[in-house]
# Entry
Amino acid sequence: MKEILLAKYGEIILKGGNRHRFESILMNNIINATRNVAKIKARLIQATIYVEVLEEGKTDLVLERMTKIFGIVSITKAAVCGKTIDEIEQTAKEYLKNDLTPGKRFKVESKRADKSFPLNSIEISREVGGYLHDEYPELIVDVHEPEATVRVEVRELGAYVYCEENRVKGQGGMPIGTGSRATLLLSGGIDSPVAGHMIAKRGVEINAVNFFSFPYTSERAKEKVIELASIIARYTSKINLYIVPFTDIQLEIREHCPEEHMTLLMRRFMMRIAERIARQTKSLALITGESVGQVASQTLSALDVTNAVVDMPVLQPLIGMDKIEVIDRAREIGTFDTSILPYEDCCTVFTPKHPTVNPKRSNIEKSESHLDVERLIDEAFAGVELIEVFPS
Amino acid sequence: MENRFIYLDNAATTKPCKEAVSAFLKAAETFGNPSSLYRLGIDAEKLINAAGNVITSKLGVERRSVYFTSGGTESNNTAIFGAAHGHRKLGNRVITSRIEHPSVLESFKQLEKDGFDVKYVCAGEDGIIDIDELNGYLTEDTTLVSIMHVNNETGAVQPVDRLKALMSKKSPKALLHCDCVQSFGKLPVEPKKWGADMISISAHKIHGFKGTGALYIREGANIKPLLYGGEQQREFRPGTENVGGIAAFGAAAGAYRYNDEEMRGFRSRLAERLAEKADIVINGSAEHNSGSVMNISFPGIKAEILLHALEAKGIYVSTGSACSSHDPSPSHVLSAMGKTKREIEGAIRLSFSGPLDPEDEEYAVSTIASEAAKIRKYM
# Structure
């Protein structure tokens, strides 16, 4: 029996004149994301994507990949057959035999897109339902609360049969590449990978910046960040990860500035360097993982102090989320287990004991005046290492 | 000066020597299953026996009493569980020390959960177990005493040769197990002389490969096996033998040379030179030491930062404790020795397989001192 994947897309359908552009980007993304999995043939007809997997036994792998492509709302496997009622009935009986087990409440729902088919949708449902009930007499017909909804779709290229309950949820969102590019400040923590995923979900291409404090953090910390990037890349395809040497800046701050301002001063440097990388990589915004009030450096006045140093939008998609909600998201996208590995922020050398909670711009600027900001940024920038991270 | 490579973590693992590598390659050609009846199998079996002979002659024991394992951890687990459970009818008390390797300590913790009466002997500031305390724990119903020979974090040599005399007076039924993973090849390991019933050793600490070890069991000791399966190794340790690893183990054991007296001198000299340049505390006995391990505290410094700073300079060392705000796991060995928190957090371990050449020694001493000073500035 021939099997196919049917995918539905979501918000694109609301697009007007440029809908075609969104569709073709999505189709390209599907081809790219499945390239290393199997050869496929993908077609888009009337807001449904038909994916034929041309290699035996790879259908589930392709389906799994497609659940990570932004823009797709749901995917289902379906059996393909010829457009006669006999074939449809035979196919439904055979293909859904594991779903139509004794005692199950079921119903049939049909759609006739090909109006040349002799039966209308109500007649198809009745015919197929009657046939399945005859073949599997222990089924119970229940059109209100079915446990198995048999779907029959008669379309231009053929007829499709599947069970609605087997439909798999997709990511939703917009296809990557439809929304410019942004630069993610990626730490080893729980929040920033989630922030990156959320913005990418809106169709924005992502690159990432990480600040590396060797020897105060280890090579393992760097490997952890690369692994996090590779998990995000499952959704976005390749990510360019820029590793910025940050130790000298931290040491200078530690030496010349008040301890309680340390975190904020560091964050201001991070934002400036990230902005420079963003401009160079044609990113139009920065992405960070802050949520209001989570830690001292994420109070509104702290956010004011850190965001003041850049002149581009700073996207903070977690801003109103609770930690527990962020953790749930991190689990869903698969970054949580990596995020909680212990290698980050070795020791507390650069964490003030009593950080300022309500900083003022003028005070922080005064602390910062002890430093040669431009020189430090230039030096860090000169040592940036680019790592191309592929999906893991 | 750059591109140095000074590996000072030989207690963690060692680089396979050329004898081990060529023995492994030869075994790869002689790829038959050692249990097979034809020539290729017999040849593989011969490689195992040749390696077995090298190791048993070093230990001064019979070939029949040595079993190859997957390494020190398996050897220790087999000895401890095999003895404790195998002799449970004879008694419920088992004794070890607080400074053992985790593969011993965790096994005893499991025995505690299984209902055994476990006693843990403390160590003094010199890193050597309190033998009087141990003596006090010995009872009629004690079935097992497990004490390591050389401690992996400090190099301190434990009085394993004095235990059996105490045991035979008060605990005649008890077996003595010694974890000799850090000492085999470096100091004389003499089960017969000590009266040890079981000895664990490992290949990759003496320039063999990871994944190979051995366990000596005195004949008649009646130890319960850990694994069940085929009839390999007298059915005590079934499973197709790791021929390559075993052959390499034999070759490495045969080739390894270590002069402990010279190494104690080397260790003391290094300690003195470092003490001239930095504020340090050397942990554990210098006199009763294998000479292969030097544990140094830089009080007030976080050891892991120093480790990474040295890594950048081509010097590879280890820390006893992971330095992370999430996972504060201080070294259980240094804690048992009564070291302060500052000393424990600032402790690195240098471990040697032989002396350094003078130029590397000079570089190591001055680099360790200067990197420590750099870090101290910001702590």
